[in-house]
């Protein structure tokens, strides 16, 4: 990572009128939440593919498999936001928005008031039969709703489900009004999230901060751990 890159990033942030952050798992790994797409991620060694388990089909046809997978691998209720969440929150509350792929709610915990959760969040739990909202504590006991016998689920977008249309519309509006786009902690290969870039304002500057280069041509790339970058920022 070059010092000049960091200085340039700070300058772009200072000069921007409206910033959008597009974030992924790399932001939450420092809070102890494993990046399920990286080598040591939670999906390693799982017999069945996550795409199969995290589907509507498994949720309804084999609810115990779905439930044990999410409970054992995806919930980290004690996790706390780290410096990256905090600095992004600070900037967003002043002049920006965050669109995140993360479902861990840590950005909201960090006090960010402009969070769009592209894939929903794990703590928005409800009964699929009576639609009552359910607490994490209750869900952690059982996946069957005691009141009605319905299957309980988290409000995350499953692999065979589409993005909520309102979330998509809101995300596109944010992209169009932002003059600085900062991609952070994501390999940026998951669609349709990665397609959001196609909606950026034509005058917007685009900067990516990630451990590895992302496959998007023509943008500024800072290769490194996002936490080292955010430590530097004001
Ligand atoms: Zn119910």
TrEMBL record:
Start and end residues of each Deacetylase sirtuin-type domain: 1-234
Positions annotated to bind Zn(2+): 127, 130, 145, 148
InterPro entries (alphabetical): DHS-like_NAD/FAD-binding_dom, NAD-dep_sirtuin_deacylases, Sirtuin, Sirtuin_cat_small_dom_sf, Ssirtuin_cat_dom
Keywords from the UniProt entry: Metal-binding, NAD, Transferase, Zinc
SUPFAM superfamilies per the UniProt record, alphabetical: DHS-like NAD/FAD-binding domain
NAD recorded as keyword: yes
Pfam families: SIR2
Coiled-coil features, chain-numbered ranges: none
Broad enzyme group: transferase
One function term, GO molecular function aspect: histone deacetylase activity, NAD-dependent
Active site (UniProt): 119 (proton acceptor)
EC identifiers of the protein: 2.3.1.286
PANTHER family: NAD-DEPENDENT PROTEIN DEACYLASE (PTHR11085:SF4), NAD-DEPENDENT PROTEIN DEACYLASE SIRTUIN-5, MITOCHONDRIAL-RELATED (PTHR11085)
Protein name, as recorded: protein acetyllysine N-acetyltransferase
């Amino acid at each position: 990572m070059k010092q000049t890159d960091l200085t340039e990033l700070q300058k772009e942030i200072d000069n921007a009128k409206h910033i959008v952050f597009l974030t992924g798992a790399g932001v939450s790994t420092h809070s102890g939440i494993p990046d399920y797409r990286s080598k040591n991620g939670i999906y390693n060694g799982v017999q069945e593919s996550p795409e199969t388990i995290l589907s509507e089909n498994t949720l309804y046809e084999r609810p115990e498999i779905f439930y044990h997978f999410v409970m054992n691998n995806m919930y980290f209720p004690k996790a706390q936001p780290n410096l990256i969440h905090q600095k992004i929150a600070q900037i967003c509350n002043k002049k920006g928005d965050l669109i995140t792929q993360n479902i861990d709610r840590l950005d909201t915990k960090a006090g960010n008031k402009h969070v769009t959760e592209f894939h929903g969040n794990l703590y928005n739990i409800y009964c699929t039969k009576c639609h009552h909202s359910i607490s994490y504590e209750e869900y952690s006991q059982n996946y069957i709703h005691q009141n009605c016998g319905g299957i309980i689920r988290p409000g995350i977008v499953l692999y065979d489900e589409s993005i909520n249309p309102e979330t998509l519309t809101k995300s596109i509006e944010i992209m169009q009004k932002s003059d600085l786009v900062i991609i952070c902690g994501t390999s940026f290969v998951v669609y349709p999230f990665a397609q959001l870039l196609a909606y950026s304002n034509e005058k917007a500057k685009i900067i990516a901060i990630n451990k590895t280069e992302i496959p998007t041509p023509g943008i500024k790339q800072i290769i490194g751990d996002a936490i080292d970058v955010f430590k530097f920022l004001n």
